[in-house]
Amino acid sequence: MKEEEIRPKKIFDEYLKLAKEDIKQHFSNKRGFVNINCPACNKNETSFEFEKDGFSYVQCNDCGTLYVNPRPSEEVIRNFYGHSKSTKYWAEHFYKETEEQRREKIFKPRALMIQDFVGKGKKINTFADIGAGYGTFLDEVRKLGLAKNILAIEPSSDLAVVLKNKGFEVIQMLIEKCGSVLENKVNLATSFELLEHVFSPQKFFESVWEILAENGYLIFTTLNINGFDLQVLWDKSNSISPPHHLNFFNLGSAKILLKRCGFKTIKTFTPGKLDVDIVKNTCSEQNIEVGRFVKLLINSDEATRANFQSFLSENNLSSHMCFVVQKSTR
Ligand SMILES: [Zn+2]
Hints:
By secondary structure, the protein is α/β, with parallel strands linked by helices.
């Protein structure tokens, strides 16, 4: 899999351009910014790492989580997502224009991973995808017949329309508000690439805990700050993109937070396939100086790069990580 296949440069560059305009429009002054403790371990000793587009990124001295601090308040973030040009572009262009490539490369494999988890021939009673977006993943879950009831949790009204047109039952609200509607109802929930966006990851997990049935499961993915492309590119990484990406956990720090929120971690892995490709592309586009070894690596032949990528995935060193966790007591 290549970055260009799932994140075409032309579309992604336009998105990054709009995100910069959004920042000027929504965050030109820091009114409404608040200081927070570490989103993973709740301690507050940090080292300042860098500033990007006016947002400060700090790293927790204790657990290594990288996060925006101070950050826009929950209300400012919600207002931003409701009115931002970059988010609208993502929903209207990115999802639509990349749907078929992403279906093949991302969503089918993802649905097969869920099938493996559920067990062939078995069915989950109630399944919910949090941040269901364009519904391509749910399409694949439905095709495989993995659940009796499928719920799409999606706060955006534009995307809710798309999901309804695809025939899904939509809970059009933020997960943080779903407790009263879905309490103890969901047997398996999924959330892909959402955690890095939320104001309070703790509140996010606590809200998922509320909607899960006893011993219910959550499978989620997010960025791993200890992964290769983030470690090499650091502040130059396009994934470090405020105000969209606020939280960068690592395997250990996410586990700390999950435990605090009443989850038992069953399995973690870093199935990423793009680290080396992302470093290669970003270096050539932005003329970034990287160390001698990385330079050697990104200029090596395709088989060497692919082998190195497998090594990263197998050793928890990819920037894309996945968790399988179970509701426990809190
Ligand atoms: Zn911490």
